[in-house]
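Quick start: read one record
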Amino acid sequence: MLAGVVQEVYEEGSLLAELPVFAIDSKSILYNRESTLPSAAFYDIHEQIPWQADVNYTAQKEATLKRVVRQDVLDKFMMDTYKDPNDYRTLVLSQLRKGCMRTIEDKCIYGDIDNDAAEFDGISQLFDTDAAGGESFAAANPQIYDMGGAAAPASIMVLRRLVDAVKPRPDILLMTRTFRNTLSATAFEKGVVLANAQPVGNITYGQNEFGKRIDYFDGVRILVSDYLLNEVDNTGVKDPGNDSGICSVYAIRFGQIVDGGLCLCVGGDTGGPQFFMMKELEALEDYDASGIRLSAYCCLALGSSKALARITSIDEDGAIVA
């Protein structure tokens, strides 16, 4: 048997590779975000100037570390009969690490502590107000735009507003592969749906250091993410069957908390060269096996609410209008 495993699951769009890391030495990190700013007034000569001391200018936010962990057995029968037990251990460890990374990548987008208090909030839940009950998802959040759902055309103007909503400017636009292809076709083949359809010049592309194509919208890099899935219309929740044809696009500015950006908080030994903390157990009770455990303490932190914006309820392969 050939050593190793042939890759069958290919996924692009890793947020972990983009996120700056912020290490903390406690369970959580507290920080203040601007809430209201004071205003001044004009006073005449000899006019009394009042003292002001009753305005709260900040709102406190908290990012709490959460533990992600999985442990797998190293069956003694396999270790003793495998041609090279090191190959078997490497195989188990590599698949274990890949599975843990996929879980974190998913939670970086769709994590929701309202559904599971043990996980951290992903970017879909980091807006100031969560959608609740029957209210419009976008109406509750000034940083979210609603495109209208199935059969409603996507709009280049709303994409521009999305870019403008992130201050001072986003680093990436995170979107599905299908919607990226729809945008690309609009730019180079189909044109915008108008009386006189013409390709749009604000969708461009370049190359990275490996010669791979990189797409840009209005000068902002497009990151295609296979972890960004189809969603239930007007909820932001991923569709269980991943076939609704409705998607979201995110504009994200990365940076440390004090810089107002989106970052990954880590604690303990998480975030080193291997990212995960690894523990090997020599003998498992009731098993003829040893074991490997991978764990990480991490969460997302959004410094400023203006570092994240979203368009929701996009028909990802529909028409695109001006």
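Residues 2 and 143 are 51 Å apart (CA to CA).
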